[in-house]
Design goal:
The protein is about 35% helix and about 15% strand. It is built from eleven helices and twelve strands. Bound molecules: nicotinamide-adenine-dinucleotide (NAD).
Length: about 325
């Protein structure tokens, strides 16, 4: 069996080599994304595995079909970079990764704590020997209401971690889950917006969650609300969020993701002229902490991403099914 692995980072190679040896398969390694230029490298393979920067449009899917490639695995949890409807229409099966939620949940808690304790400012000051306290006064978790949007794998793990801090926890999910009820209180979306001091996003990017944080929803929130996004940048209308910061409606932001991050994050762009103005503008606020989509990035998660990415292709090729197949 032969597959092509796109967007392979150096830190993934060890895991790819181990699994290739274990199952005796050939893997063609490509650093670049799967795109119209690199797709030729998949010729003769039975499946391809990608990360989140490969935009899998109908054009790419049609080309894969011409090469008789019927299986794609994305080594990410999110799959909004793949035109799933079209893939289904032409008979291409797609799987995603299911690494544990703890890395992202831990990171979410870190961004919450950094935001409520003004740590970005404190860190910057330390670098220039400014040890003043002015403006750094924070809040205590036990006094806060935290609203968790989405109680799936990551959201529910965030709720478990939050329990240790003694804060009040509200949760909203389109599909509430019984086992969460003993740990947090399900409320409607408006109540969550109205009563939360901190709101953290853990819903997938779907048509109905696109830009759900916008002028209208921000208007329903408490003055000085802290927003945390470790899910997908497109959940927020960043222009409306900028206005929220400028008008002091939003008191702090912790963003691991931002809209149009794809050509920037996970690359060294120091010598380039970047054109994402919103990203450049929002990052300069003293109360905005941004990271480069790295909440997932732990040793255990990377090994699991590679293993599930390859194993699902093996399973697809041998049985036409995979436990990781996206069936929505
Ligand atoms: P999940 O599928 O387990 O949970 C998603 C939850 O959202 C489900 O409970 C679902 O019912 C709920 N939901 C769906 N539509 C909704 C809506 N309209 N309103 C409210 N809730 C809705 O997914 P997960 O593993 O918890 O991951 C959540 C998201 O986190 C992923 O989709 C991905 O975008 C993001 N993510 C980010 C990173 C990172 O490194 N920053 C890593 C992994 C995942």
């Amino acid at each position: 069996m032969k597959i092509t692995a796109y967007e392979v980072r150096e830190d993934e190679q060890k895991y790819f080599k181990d699994i290739a040896e274990k199952y005796n398969i050939d893997i063609i390694y490509v650093k670049e994304t799967l795109n119209v230029e690199t797709i030729e490298l998949a010729k003769g393979c039975e499946g391809v595995t990608i990360l989140g920067r490969s935009k899998i449009s109908s054009i790419i899917l049609d080309k894969l079909k011409v090469f008789n490639i019927n299986y794609i695995s994305t080594r990410t949890i999110g799959y909004n970079h793949i035109d799933l409807d079209y893939a289904r229409k032409i008979g291409i099966k797609v799987s995603n990764s299911n690494y544990g939620p703890n890395g992202v949940a831990d990171f979410t808690l870190m961004l919450i704590l950094m935001s409520i304790r003004n740590y970005k400012q404190a860190m910057f000051r330390g670098n220039v020997n400014d040890y003043s306290l002015d403006g750094l006064q924070g809040k205590e978790m036990k006094d806060l209401t935290v609203g968790v949007l989405g109680s799936g794998k990551i959201g529910s793990t965030v709720i478990e971690l939050l329990q240790g801090f003694g804060c009040r926890i509200l949760v909203y999910d389109a599909y509430p889950k019984d086992k969460i009820r003993e740990k947090a209180k399900y409320v409607d979306l408006d109540t969550l917006y109205k009563e939360s001091d901190v709101i953290t996003l853990h819903t997938p990017l779907l048509k109905d969650t696109h830009h759900m944080i916008n002028k209208e929803s921000i208007g329903k929130m408490k003055n000085g609300v802290i927003l945390i996004n470790c899910a997908r940048g497109e959940l927020m209308d960043i222009e409306d969020v900028i206005v929220g910061i400028e008008t002091h409606k939003i008191g702090g932001l912790g963003l691991d993701v931002i809209e149009n991050e794809e050509e920037i994050y996970h690359q060294d762009r120091r010598l380039d002229i970047l054109t994402n103005r919103q990203m450049a503008y929002i990052r300069q606020f003293p109360n905005v902490t941004m990271t480069q989509h790295m909440a997932f990035y732990t040793d255990i998660a990377v090994s699991s991403m590679v293993n599930s990415g390859v194993e699902s292709l093996i399973s697809f090729v041998n049985t036409a099914t995979s436990e990781y197949e996206i069936k929505r």
